[in-house]
Amino acid sequence: MVSEQRSKIMSRIRSKDTGIELTLRRALWQKGYRYRKNYKGLPGTPDIAFTKYKIAVFCDSEFFHGYDWDIKKQKLGENRDYWIKKIERNMERDRENDHKLMNMDWVPVHFWGQDILKHTDECVEAISDLIFEIRLGLDQIDDGDGVEEE
To answer: Model pTM?
Structure first.
């Protein structure tokens, strides 16, 4: 591929409102979930943030976030050193941001783009299950009288 073609393709890659994000957000909205998008108040700027439940959702593209990285790394062609360094740093940054979020009592959730596109309902169900678990925990804390109900 000619570098001018590659440059044109790369210039069209967006970091916000990608197809995978829009797919997941639409599905969540249809189920009645409300959220903040691209929430800058948190490490890593989650694509979707449920502030009430402290859930940070990331919609990760396979290439830039290193899906099957050990295999894909071997197949890189042009500018191999650049891409290896860039993608491995992205993966490291993702881990760092996850640790920061957990230290803030947030739950980071990552979905691969192909999973969002092929199994949207399962992704929504995973988020629903997590919200349900957190609600149960909040209800037990809110009860606060120290007496178990039967």
So the answer is: 0.82
